[in-house]
Amino acid sequence: MKIAVIGAGSWGTATALLLAHNNHDVVLWTRRPELAELIARQGCNEEYLPGIALPKNVSVASNLELALTDAQALVLATPSKAVRTTCEQLKAFYRANTPLVLLSKGVENESGLLLLDVADVVLGSSNAQAVLSGPNHAEEVARGMLSATVVASKNPEVATLFQELLSSDSFRVYTSTDSMGVQLCGAAKNVIALGAGILAGSGYGDNTAAMLMTRGLAEISRLVEAVGGESQTCMGLAGMGDLIVTCTSRHSRNRSFGVALAQGETLASYEAKTHMVVEGALASKSVTNLASLHGVELPICETVRRAVWEGLALDEMISLLMMRPAKPEFY
User: What are the residue numbers of the active site?
Assistant: First the structure.
């Protein structure tokens, strides 16, 4: 098949590699012509995934029409804040009902829509859309390290299609029909990971990290259930699996930014230095706004939001969380 991967960041590039190794013809699209030229000339994406050679069946384009011409499936791998604008650009060339899988993780802040719903509003063809999420750091997937993920769609045939396109001996793909739960897990775990980084950067240890992850998972589960997803999804790869890796890994930009924030760095300077979007910072706003609409308490996510956007100090964060009224563990 010819498959277009829209977004040439680290995860988009790693996904292009997965598809190419399964003998598909892949067009990797970037909005930056200079990056497309550099990747084509060097044979790898040194800016986002250094040291990983791209196979011959991966081509690079900065022209959307060229990328989508005759494409039989699409992978959308832009930052969450760019999903709507990218879909609006895609609309002129997108053929209705072309299978699309979304790799972006987040909730649109302005509308409160999950990103798969944003794609549906702009492109239509919701019955052909899926979302992929899991404990998948691009650096490790690209190097063939054992990994697993889940692809979710309300249309089981679409989920199965992307399962077949992406599965390999080192990348195991499971399917789900709970696209809502998978999306929310992917968005909210970034907020918890940012909080984990703040605590790590402030000298807290393993007990604190375990507490944060466990109670963070409880928050995610409450929100998933409130919006109509399945709480069991939170115990799987998109929930617990992704939460663990994002809160603990040196590859995690959300955790790394939390560490940097605790040590005085700003969001703007961190993103300028790394050339990457800190999805947890954006999600701390959109996820807590969504929770407020549904009357769900997310004390950890709310405290992280205030730390990122309002300069809430660490001692105030700790006090707000630890001085809350005592409750049963499950409520």
Answer: 189
Integer distance in angstroms from the first to the last C-alpha of the chain?
A: 48
pLDDT at 290 over 80: yes
- Tens-place pLDDT, residues 57-76: 999 999 999 999 999 999 99
Query: CA separation (Å) from 147 to 18, 47, 273, 326?
Result: 12, 23, 28, 38
Q: How many residues does the chain have?
A: 331
- Mean pLDDT computed over every residue of the chain: 95
Identify the bridge partners of residue 107 per DSSP, sorted by sequence position: 114
Contact 178, 153 (CB under 8 A): no
Q: How many CB atoms lie within 10 A of CB 292?
A: 13
pTM, whole model, 2 decimals? 0.92
Nearest to 114 by CA among 154, 144, 143: 154
Residue 331's pLDDT is 57
What percent of the chain clears pLDDT 90, i.e. is strictly above it?
90
Instruction: Report which residue type is found at 181.
Output: G
Token pair in block for residue 284: 């701390």
| pLDDT computed for residue 257 by the predictor | 96
What is the DSSP-derived secondary structure letter of residue 202?
T
CA atoms of 138 and 289, how far apart (whole Å): 29
State the maximum Cα–Cα separation within the chain, in Å, rounded to a whole number.
Answer: 60
Please tell me the distance from the alpha carbon of residue 274 to that of residue 276, in angstroms, as a whole number: 5
**49: closest CA among 147, 134, 138?**
138
Integer CA distances (angstroms), 120 to 39, 51, 166, 249, 265, in order: 31, 36, 23, 33, 37
Cβ-contact 71, 3 below 8 angstroms: yes
How far apart CA 184 and CA 190 sit, in angstroms, is 10
How many CB atoms are closer than 10 A to CB 56? Answer: 9
